[in-house]
Amino acid sequence: MTRFASALGIAQDIRTGKRSAASVMQSVLATINQHDAAIHSVTHLFAQQAMEQAQAVDALLARKKPLPPLAGVPFGVKDLFDIQGHVTTAGSIVLRNTPPATQDATIVARLRAAGAIAVATLNMDEFAYGFATDNAHYGITRNPHDTSRMAGGSSGGSAAAVAAGFLPLTLGTDTNGSIRVPASLCGVWGLKPTFGRLPREGAYPFSASLDVVGHFAGTLDDLMAAFYIMADTPAEPEPQTLRAACLGGWFAQNLSPALAAAIGRVCQHLGLSGSVELPQIPTARAASFLITAAEGGTLHLPRLRAAAEEYDPATRDRLLAGAMLPSSTYVQAQRFRRWFRRQVHAMFEEVDVLIAPAVMCEAPRLDDPTIMVDGKPASARANLGLYTQPISLPGLPVLCLPLRNTGTLPLGLQLVAAPGREAALFSLARKLEQAGLAGRCPLEAQQAA
């Protein structure tokens, strides 16, 4: 397998006999074993099971049996999805003695039913609480484009595995930006679907009213194909006429020059002038943060009382702080959320897709984990979600696309639509891809070659 094969390309090669599923899997496992030490995206390999499943695909083909659409395609899962027979750790040692999962998470099962093969669990921030994939128990995931820099989080291992070319498809979760931040920093496609559109069964929870399961891919076609398989619905027609608008105000501040220029090129290509603004974005970000903290803290409080010392100290302190929030604060945040949702939905009566930056700059350095906010250095771990957190609040579908030809390390763009309108996101993303403005960012070595 070449380092950057697509999921659909692999499936086609296996179906036509160009490559065997076993040879694909051997190559995948060899690549991970050889190269992941520098990136640390993988926490566990299902090597034997993956090879056996690949051989079973080849046996079906030898008997001239029809193959499902993703037969032989390798994929990885953020280490909070249940894999039958495997202990789900959610990036923590706290759960290491829990019984193995008795069945796969629902979206894992649907990918398997489509023929895809689970190869690995992937690194994450402990209990999905963070934007850095800096894990006290399992190590730091590094950005494949520059291993001195962050991959982002909390689904950093999933984004990095795709960016490095280890796997064409990986699963993640997004509460406040945990798919969109690492997708942006690693230069791959990422989708946070509409809240509730993909089933969360078998995914370890963080914030019940905000958690969304989604995925990463190296190509838009792979992203779309996997989405409809996991949603268990036929592919929807992509609308050809779309009303788009760029978000201004909060979303036009603190941009790096390269990102501001790239957004300008996108708006120019789409014939957009001016911008629109969502109301009270600082409050929306604060409400999203408070809801997450309160729900996460409440979820973990019983275990914190019994085994606080087993948590990553940074995670533990944030969860304890969330558990101590007054209930009145949580109620107030949820009231604001309902009001904000109504304002956003009203905007979608005039616009089909909103365009916003995903992260304000390229990946921060691990030895200087800061970004510039309002002209001053600020903690990257606390502020990488500056543009993703407010958009999380209404439960909207958001596609993070990698921008092309920025002259920098990867930068990403959020495309935002009304609930259930993922097809509109795919349509606009396709137009930007065809214009050469969007597409998976190749590694520097590939560019040099």
Major sheet attributes: 10 strands, mixed
Helix content class: 25-40%
Count of extended strands: 16
Total helices: the number is 15
Globally, the shape reads globular
Gyration radius over CA: 21 Å
Which CATH architecture of the domain at 7-231 is right?
Answer: Alpha-Beta Complex
- The CATH C-level name of the domain at 7-231 is Alpha Beta
Write the CATH homologous superfamily of the domain at 7-231.
Amidase signature (AS) domain
- Rounded mean pLDDT is 96
> Beta-strand level of the residues, as a percent range?
15-25%
**Spatial strand sequence of the major β-sheet:** 1-3-2-8-10-9-15-16-12-11
Distance between the termini: 18 Å
Low-confidence stretches: 445-449
User: What is the fold-level CATH name, i.e. the topology of the domain at 7-231?
Assistant: Amidase signature (AS) enzymes
Helices and strands: which structural class?
alpha+beta
Structure explained in plain terms:
- The chain has 449 residues and is an alpha+beta fold.
- It has a domain at 7-231: Amidase signature (AS) enzymes, CATH 3.90.1300.10.
- It is 39% helix and 15% strand.
- It has 15 helices and 16 strands.
- The strands form four sheets. The protein has a ten-stranded mixed beta sheet with strand order 1-3-2-8-10-9-15-16-12-11, with helices on both faces. A two-stranded antiparallel sheet has the order 4-5. Strands 6-7 form a two-stranded antiparallel sheet.
- The protein is globular, with a radius of gyration of 21 Å.
- 53% of the residues are buried.
- The model is unreliable at 445-449 (pLDDT under 50).
